[in-house]
Amino acid sequence: MKNFYILFFLLLTILPLAVYSQTITKLDGSKITATALDKKIQALVKAANVQGLAITVFNNKQPVYKKTFGYKRLDTKEPIRTSTNFYGASLSKAVFAVLVMKLVEEGVLDLDKPLQEYLPRPIYTYTPQTKWHDNYSDLEQDTLYKKITARMCLAHTAGFPNWRWFEEDQKLRVKYEPGARYSYSGEGLVYLQVVLEKMTGKPLETLMQEKLFLPLGMKRSSYTWQPAFETDYVLGHKTNGELYEKDKDNEARSASTLETTLDDYTLFLQAVLRNKLLKPATSKEMFSPQIRISSVKQFGPLSQRDTTTNDAIALSYGLGWGLLQSPHGTGAFKEGHSDGFQHYSILFPEQGTGILILSNSDNGHSIFKELLETALGDTYTPWFWQNYMPYDQAKD
Fold it and tell me: What pLDDT, in 10s, does the model give residues 348-387?
């Protein structure tokens, strides 16, 4: 009996390691060993001058490879761990989308009811409770905002700009007919957040902890900076390796302020793949195209010019996630960009395959194309549309 318990505890120790040492199966059924992927990533990180990287690969709806490379900060060369905190940037939006869909399941919210109709008085009459993001006084003379629904906010068709401070006068306005066209908008997600907070009487952070973080065991995730993160977090790096200062005073915003770790976001993506938070029908709706996208690029002047380049993958937007079609089913992706941080995730739910990439470097996106092809066999991600210019091409 004693030998049995010794063997049992040995297995408990060895099995978690085995999960991350097996061969990885790509979308097309071909395989790559963890050792070969290690070497490829190390070569890419060095060639592109990426200061830090964290990556998880999923097969059969579970992580089969989860590793970190490089440093929390280049000057100290302290290594990144899977439990080290990263600023999540727009990965925040995918997590918020799942929260919203959960509230839809619970009957709290209807995707197609205008959000203003949930409030007893116009949104612009409320006294702001934050520095700026819940100040809607600019909408007093606006009539279009009353048409905006949760579905439009999640699909980036609300008509708001990405952020009000990008406008010449830094005022918030509805620029397009709600529901008519795709235009990426952090303001749209925050508007939905603010309405939900007023409806439920709970701040975003409380809703996230109750509905997602605590149930999934995401112990180092939050939409605001927490003192517990002080002991282990990364700093962002400029293209030349210089450090950005860490912003720790963000107010909770659904579109942008998530702090998380490789461990925690892996738990989130695994839960999405396994429908642990949402019913299969709800996940299917979340990953259903709401609007086709035909722009040359996602941002900048070329976002106003159309192309047929991405017709082959039927590039579109779902509810909180970008979508593409491939021989392996729907691909649901979400990226994150901020000073010193470049992230990307894509799931193929029908196959149970996916990848999560976190980097604390402005150079991080320059290895995404090759990394996706090597680790996942993903040749479908619209890297040019997302401006993921490969490092060897950027130097030409």
Answer: 999 999 999 999 999 999 999 999 999 999 999 999 999 9
Distance set, CA 364 to CA 36, 44, 202 (Å): 20, 10, 36
**Which tens digit of pLDDT belongs to each residue from 114-162?**
999 999 999 999 999 999 999 999 999 999 999 999 999 999 999 999 9
Domains of the chain (ranges, CATH numbers):
2-394 (3.40.710.10)
pTM of the model: 0.94
